[in-house]
Specification:
With about 210 residues, the chain is of the alpha/beta class. The chain has one domain: 2-Layer Sandwich (Nucleotidyltransferase, domain 5), CATH 3.30.420. It is about 40% helix and about 15% strand. A five-stranded mixed beta sheet has the order 3-2-1-4-5. A hairpin with an 8-residue loop joins strand 1 and strand 2. Helix 2 packs across helix 5 and helix 3 packs across helix 4. The radius of gyration is 18 Å and the shape is elongated.
Length: about 210
């Protein structure tokens, strides 16, 4: 159940985590996703529990970081965080249940993959997940919470690496360059070759233009 437990100042990335600790929570997990918008590939979510009092220098919203910086921070987070969990939902399931529900499913899987298990969730965005744990949604959380920012980096790098592998399997589409997003090159490839097994057939740009 969602509860507005915390108040934070945007300049302090660790305020949410600190306030959670003050309320008696020991394992606060930040959760974020990557890949809601692309036309192909999975949606990937990550959950990260930072160690109490831990600060990882440079952690920020993954979209504000260069690819090289994300890769380096990915390694730091994997080495230094108390726990990291990853969840992924494939394109066929996205088509079956819609991208919002698929994102919630991936986030839940990421949280459930954490060891130790969290006792409080901080979730980027405005939508809760199907968990009985206390959870707070935070608009632009990847710019306001260190643990959510760390999760955004893990999710982004994990998904990008998956798309590089898919580029080897399906070289006609240029997944290594655009990671499945609807770039002009990608749309042109779809017109030439049609969708491949990892395309989201329910998405505009992939499904037939006659709707």
């Amino acid at each position: 159940m969602q509860s507005a437990l915390f108040i934070t100042e945007p300049a302090d990335l660790y305020s949410f985590e600190r306030q959670a600790a003050q309320r008696g929570f020991h394992h606060v997990a930040g959760i974020d996703e990557a890949g809601r918008g692309p036309l192909a590939g999975p949606v990937v979510a990550a959950a990260v529990i930072l160690r109490p009092g831990q600060k990882i220098t440079g952690v920020n919203d993954s979209k504000k970081l260069s690819e090289d910086r994300r890769e380096r921070l990915f390694d730091l987070i994997m080495e230094q965080a108390l726990a990291v969990g990853i969840g992924s939902v494939d394109a066929a399931t996205i088509d079956a249940i819609n991208i919002l529900q698929a994102t919630r499913q991936a986030m839940l899987a990421a949280a459930q993959a954490l060891h130790p298990q969290p006792d409080c969730l901080l979730i980027d965005g405005i939508t809760t997940i199907a968990s009985t744990l206390p959870q707070t949604t935070i608009k632009q959380g990847d710019s306001r919470s260190a643990s959510i920012a760390a999760a955004s980096i893990i999710a982004k790098v994990t998904r990008d690496r998956l798309m590089l592998q898919y580029d080897q399997q399906f070289p006609d589409y240029g997944f290594a360059r655009h990671k499945g997003y609807g770039s002009a090159r990608h749309l042109k490839a779809l017109l030439q070759h049609g969708p491949c097994p990892i395309h989201r057939l329910s998405f505009a740009g992939v499904k037939p233009s006659n709707g």
